[in-house]
Structures are given as C-alpha cells and as structure tokens.
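> @MW can you paste both from yesterday?
MW: sure, first one:
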Amino acid sequence: MAMAQPPSINYKTNPNVGFGVENYDYTSPLSSSGSDFPCKGELKYLGTKAGAPVANYAPGGTFTIKLDGQATHSGGSCQASLSYDKGSTFTVIKSWIGDCVRPQPSEDQTFTGQIPSNAPAASEVVFAWTWFNELGNREMYMNCAVVTIGGGKRRRRSFEDDTSDLSNDTTSELAPRARLSGPAIFIANVGNGCTTVASRDVVFPSPGSVVQYGGNSGNRNDPSGTCDGRPFTGGSVVGGSSSGSSSDPGNSSPTGHRGDCTYWASQGYLCSGSSSGRAINPLFFSLTLLAGVGLMA
C-alpha cells in the first residue's frame, strides 16, 4: 500500500516527481534493518523542487489520506503524524487502531482526520503515514509528503507562547523553531527491539488524544519488546470500541490505562497522586483529566 494523497515524495501521483527520481518501491515496507527510516529515505529531497509542498492545510482543518494498492494484509493499525524538523521527530496527530488499512482491497482506502488547531504555521512540514500490517511478515510501512501548514507563515517562538508574533518569511530558516506537542510516532519491526504481534492489530502505547477504533475489538494486542521506552509482552488488550472515534481517555481506554497516572501524564493530561499501575480515586482522576483538557483547549 502507498499514500497517493497527499502525494508522497517521488511517488507517481506527486506533481513534482519529474524533478527527482520516481520511487517504484513505495508499496513495500521499510527495511527490517531500519536503514531507510524515516520515509524510505526520501527526505534527502527536502529543499529541492522534488520535495516542494504538495498540499496546504489550515490549523484545525481536515486532512485526507488516500491509499493505493491491493496488498492489504488483512488490515492493521495506522498513524498520521507531522514533523517540523525535517524528519528528526514525528508527532502523532491521529491513530487508527484496527481496520487501517481496510482489509478488503475493494474497500475505499480513504482516511480523514484533523490538523491540530494549535499546529504552528510552516511552509515545509513532513506529513507521514505509518502502517503496521495484521497478516504477513512483521513490517512497518511509512510514506511521507511535504505540506504547508497555515499558508506557510512561521511563529518565531513555540505555539505555546501566546505573545509570539508571526513572520511573513516563507523560507525554511525558521522551521526548526516551530514545535507541536504530543506523543512521538510508534516505531517497530525495523530492528529497534520493538515488534508487533502477528495476526493482531497493534495497540499503540502512546496513540495521542485522537484515536479511531475499527475491526474486531477482540483482535488487539500490545506490541512486544521495548517500545516507546517501556517493556511490553505482546499481550491481548481489552478496551476501545469496535468503530468510531474517541478522544476521552476517561471513558475509552485503548490500552486499559484507567487510573494509570504515569501513562496519562505521558499523553499530555494532568494526573497526579499515583504511580503507574496503581488505581487512584475515580472522581479525582476524572476532575484532573477534565482540567487537563480545559487547559489544552
């Protein structure tokens, strides 16, 4: 499977493909050694005509991912993420746990989400789609496109500084100063000590605040090994729903982390009074989470 929209760098649907070298291997996974992570090695074209932006997204606006290909491997789990530092880090903006990609090749392989409303404006942002297949070899797929956020204006400081002004400069000089908060993308099956479980939809350890569930809710497992800096055994996971979206960790806990302060703090919520794995007062937990959501709004 390959990301046709927004068109990946040097993919056949990219209008700038004639300026680079067309990549005919986009439907293949990343190397199991991780040698072509991130983005199948295509970020070397950033700053060139081949790596020019192919889409413009507004903060708070909708993005659409359309996939090409027939080898769906019975689905799996995906993430969409943004990088403001030329691929050094990727911040999750949406996770799909199960039913991504859709299991039947004849199904519509279109997925939508929202650019965070506090996403900094920038003229060269890497938009990444990552996929962990359910059936077949343990693999990681990653396609990347170059996009503009907010028309290309840049904040001089991080978005968290309400007094920061905007620059009309649309060059890439200010790009490293832009920053988006949130969890890093999940990385596995590329020789990094973290793997996904065969024939199961992986439940991301840090899925972010926007999660869409699909497929069979009884077919979800944690990864195995050291993932996101924590040990996992690949056990089955109870939680989430069979379909739809969730952004309320108090009511829908995809990895069974209700009352786990360490976990929810890692997701950007306010939670205190307990160490990982120890339950806390449900009322206190709910009120604290609501306070965290209010501060982030």
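MW: second:
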Amino acid sequence: MSWLRRLSRDRNSSKGEQDLPMPSFRPSSSYTGNNQSVPYKDTEYPSAQASQDMISSYRRTAMPQEQQRVASTQFPPGTAGDDATMLTPPTNMAAAPDPLTRAFNEAIKPYLDQIDLLKNQLDDMKLQIQDLEDERGDIHAWIDKRGLRADVPLNVARAMDTHTEAATTLNFQLDRKMTMLNYDLHRLQDNVNDTLPTATFVQTLSTLIPNIERLAALAGGAKLAFELVIKLGGNLNSHGDGNTGNEADARSKADFYARLDETMVDVIRQRLEQTEEPSWPVMRDVKRIEKTGQYLKSNLGVQSYFPRSLDVLRYEAKRGEGQQGRAPGYSP
C-alpha cells in the first residue's frame, strides 16, 4: 500500500498542471541491459523535483508556439496586423531638436538672413568696382593716345603713375610736348614779326618742370628726367636774337637756369639712388655740361650753367669714378 500513497501524493502535487500533457519518459541506460529494451511500467514515475523541472522546460518551448497561434488568430494572413507584427522602427530617422536648439535657431535666423543680404550686396559692389576699373583703364588709354598724360590733374596722374611703363610713357609724352611748345613759340615769334621777350619763353617752358620732377620720382625715371632738363635748357637758348644787352632778358634767363639747376640737383640725387645697367658714366655728362656752358657764356652771355649740378657730378665722379653706390637719402 505504500506505493499507492506515494502515487496519490505525486498526483496531488501536479494537479495544477493537468491541462498540459505529461511528457513521456524513457528509461535510462541503467534500466537496460544486454541491448534489450525494458518494458515501460505505468508505476515508474520520476520524483516530484524532476517533474517540476521537466514541466518548466516544456513551458519555455511551448510558449513561442502559443504566442504565434494567438497572433495568427487575431490577425489573419494578408491583413494589416500581419505586417504590423513585422514592422521595425527606422534607424536613420533624425531626432527632433530639443526646445533649446529650436529656440536658438529661431533667434539667429534674422541675423543669418542679414548676412546673406550683405553678401549679395558685397558681390554687387565688386562687380561695380570692376566696371569702374575697366572704365578707368579706357580713360587712361584715351589720354595716352592723345599725349595728354602730362596735362592731367594730379589725382589722375597718381593713378596713371602706378603702371609699370609709367616712366617711359610720361617721358615720351613730355618730350613730344616740349617739342610742340618750342615749335609753337617759334611760329608765334614769326607771326608777330618781332622778338618776343625772354620772359614769355621762360613762363611757357617752366610749365614742364613739375612734370619732369614727377618723372624723376618714378622707377627708372631719373635717367630720363636728367636728359629732359638739359633739353629744356637748350630750348630756351634757341629763342631770341642773341642780344645780351637787354637786362630784363638776361635776368629772366638767369632765373630760369637757376631753377633748372635746383631741379637738376634733385634729379641727380634720385638717379644716384636708383640702379642702372650699365652704370652711369658720370664724367661723360660732366664734360658735356661744361662744354655747353662754355659755349653759352661766350656766345649768349650766360654766366652760370648748372653750377651746383656740376659740383655734385664732379664729386661723384672723383669718389666712385662713375660707379653708383650712394646710400638712399644722400643729399649733396
């Protein structure tokens, strides 16, 4: 009777699991022998603890099948519910900005719009500046074509002197203008059938001196200005009848040569500061000026012809034998 009581106790302990099918148990290898199966006996049941473990294992394997059965019952195949069970949230969806970031973006939006507006205005101004520069280039070309560079206002002259060929162009136009003035003075004198006073020639030729000084300040322009100063003095000597007894004419001529001498000293200083290839043969120009001065003194009564300029040139010729190397800022 003891086995009946044990059987009743085991059945009572598993009364809550009567709705689940009981697993079938197979005898272990301890019940087999000589490779013969031992008949299964209904009275051979495992212990209570083993039964609980087996029931739990069965529940874990049967639960997914039960959930799938319930889902298929609620959502038949082909309906939206079937697809809903397979949906997964997208991974590339951008997160919504937090309130602080959204408020910051809204606060700076007017300033960003203003920055874009200013950028557009800046681009428009650049285009306008380019158009103005093109127009300025056309005007400068028109001025040079007609040889009017020496007659432009000072602010226009500064802009034109920034070009690389400014010295050569200005020298060419000054030389042509000097020739034209000299020709006009001769024609005027022929038309009046009388000798014009020297002061008239001096006043006309003196208008070229500021432009010669401007030429000397340009890169490579001092050498060209040196020749223009000597030519300007020679143009004055070509006018007049050679009468040296007129004191007014002699005084006007002396004042003009004194001013030319001051200009020549500045031109020499700037020429010594510039580099020339080949080097400047100073002694050759000294002899040339001395020879012209002797002629003017004996024939036209000119007592001094570039006296200060000759002193500077002689000193430089003696010091370096025509070689440059004077430090910038040198002032004789």
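> thanks! The radius of gyration is 58 Å.
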